[in-house]
Amino acid sequence: MNMSSLTPRIFTLTNAGQMIGSQIADLLCCDLISPDNCPSKDITRKMCDAFLGNHPIIGVCSAGIIIRTLSPFIKSKHNEPPVIAISEDGQFVIPLLGGHYSANILADKIGKHLNAKSAISTGSYVTLGLSLSEPPKDWKLMNPADVKRITARILRGKKVEIIGDADWIKPLINQSNIYFTTTSEHNRIVVKAQGLPSLVYQKKEYALGVGCIRNCPSDDLIGFVNSTLSDHGISAGSIEGIYSLDLKSDEPAIHDLAQNLGVEAHFYPSETLECQYPNLQNPSEEVYQEVGCHGVSEGACLTRAGHKGHLTIEKIKTSTATMALAKIGPTTTNEGVPRGKLSVVGIGPGNISLRTPEVSRVLADADVIVGYKRYLTLLDPLPRNKEIVAFELGEEEKRCRFSLETAGLGKQVVLVCSGDSNIFAMNSLVMELLELPASNSGVSSMAKKTFVQCLPGITAMQAASAKGGGLIGHDFCAISLSNLLTDEETILERVKRAAQGDFVISLYNPASRKRRTLLDQTLNIIRKYRPENTPIVVARNIGRSKERITLKDLKTFQAEEVDMLTVLIIGNSHSRTFATNSRLNGIEGHWAYTPRGYNKKFRHQKLIKKEAKP
Ligand code: SAH
Q1: Residue 505 in 3-state DSSP?
Q2: Most buried among 344, 348, 369, 441, using CB within 10 Å?
Q3: Mean pLDDT of 250-267
Q4: Do 213 and 319 fall into the same domain?
């Protein structure tokens, strides 16, 4: 029932909240995060991480603190964990989010333990004890748009009829204005109110098996399945999931059908499907020769249905697809695997505040998080209940292959890069491995079938430039001085061209312990084309605990100040600096920026004004 299965995290920011916090921690067998065991400034950050990791959150503090902390991450009521505020004196328990089921239930439990009032505000839950918009997972509400009006009708005390029977709807028996009519159908509930469209709930009880030709038009498959179901008098809402052969895991029509039916598609290897050979009604030698099992649609739905399941619709074939339907038995174990997903993400230069919410969300949803071990520490604290796989520096290819192959097994994998994942990071290597044929050092065919997405992040250069105002305010380029993959002549040639072109130049990987001279050579080239007072932002560990950002120029800059944790931005021939009125502004009281040419406009406006004078 949407109840987050993860351990709750309890937070308090004050000594006053400790007592109530510890009582609840004992009640729920979980940890209390408080100033006793965590620096105060980190407590709200941990609260964000817990929220993104889908942990129920209980804050013994003002509701305002929780709201302000979590508001950037609140998206949809359908997938947020319960969030509960408890007043420091323990008198009030207020479910703030995740209220439809679990937050209210949890708040009730805590309220009873503390002998406190639970301030439950979700109208239908208070009065009805359930929310009609969120039936349990194995039921589907066919017309969610109509739920509000019927709920309102019930809450106004008007007569409503419920036809059907299921445990989850039973709390409504206590309502004097609701009349129950039981029927022999145990898979359908209809909620009726005069003059309004009835709510229809359907029990999800069938596994749909499908097969189709490569690039089968989605409309063909969707039309075929829906019309067959309707010919057999079976509601589309009773489909629990779509099942097929793993070779088909990237077949667009199957995923479009899944979306059309509002369910997930899952896949099995042919050996698993072949175990159903004795149970197939329409085995095919031709299919066996082609994919290694005697039937895809019948085999797949029967595998999902379990040994007490049975075929309800035998295989039906069109020129492009096949389908079969099986009633799911009471004990089913093998639900196959979904199409795997690899998200290659940039987590920003340092702490969570410079990370996009989208990246935080995929991290929260991941099964496996992969990365260079140093970057994984930037995720501190590492999300719990995930497999974390750390690689050493230099193991980039291994890291990307592992990520792709693990996604190929049907897992949700996140490959973490610092900054942006396009910029001197893993996107292009992942693409290279995907492009190479499996027979020639590429990744396996299952890895190639995964859904891959690359999510951007804030790169070191952007964060560094912003600290100083806007040194990358006009045309700029980024050059990596790492000579591991690019030879030094090429690097220096690019530096020369960029200097000649008067680009603002950001230098990544500027110097390692062993490689120092390339940076000197680079600066000597740039000095030929730019004045001595050209500003340089030197930014080390941006967004991390030992952040140090200084402003130099081509004359005063010393290459010794630089290591691999530093990014440099060298202005163009127009870049400027100026002192601000306070050391608190910019970089130690100075701004550095590159004008874009607006000053020409200012002058032009001045002239127009002068001319306009009588
Ligand atoms: N993908 C990363 C870049 C990785 S290359 C990004 O978009 O930022 C590694 C180089 O990036 C480092 O040698 C350094 O030059 C720069 N860098 C990355 N993170 C940094 C940070 N937090 N502070 C300063 N420089 C950083």
Answers
A1: strand
A2: 344
A3: 97
A4: yes
Q: How far is the CA of 565 from the centre of ligand 1 (A)?
A: 6
Q: pLDDT tier at 1 (50, 70, 90 boundaries)?
A: very low
- What does the block give as tokens for 52? 């993104």
DSSP 550-570: EEEETTT--GGG--TTEEEEE
Helix (H, G, I), strand (E, B) or coil at 413: strand
Element (H, E) at 390: strand 387-391
- The pLDDT of residue 171 is 84
Tally of structural domains, the chain: 5
Q: How many angstroms separate the CA atoms of 346 and 327, rounded?
A: 44
Q: Which atom of ligand 1 is nearest to the CA of 458?
A: 7
Mean of pLDDT over the chain:
91
The pLDDT, as a whole number, for residue 374 is 86
Place of tokens 């009633």: 327
Q: Which residues are near ligand 1 (CB < 6 Å)?
A: 349-350, 417-420, 423-425, 459-460, 508-510, 539-544, 564-567
> Are 224 and 268 members of one domain?
yes
pLDDT value at position 503?
98
Q: Exposed, middle or buried: residue 319 (CB in 10 Å: 0-12, 13-18, 19+)?
A: exposed
Domain boundary residue, one of 203, 234, 251? 203
Gap from CA of 496 to ligand 1 centroid (Å): 22
If asked whether residues 169 and 246 sit together in one domain, one would say no
Band (123; pLDDT cuts 50, 70, 90)? low
**What is the CA(542)–ligand 1 centre distance, in A?**
9
Atom of ligand 1 at shortest distance to CA of 543?
Answer: 22
User: What are 434-467's pLDDT values in tens digits?
Assistant: 999 998 889 999 999 999 999 999 999 999 999 9
Give the distance (Å) from ligand 1 centre to CA of residue 350: 10
Domain residue limits at 299: 206-327
φ and ψ of 398, to 5 deg = -60, -45
| Pair (362, 245) in one structural domain | no
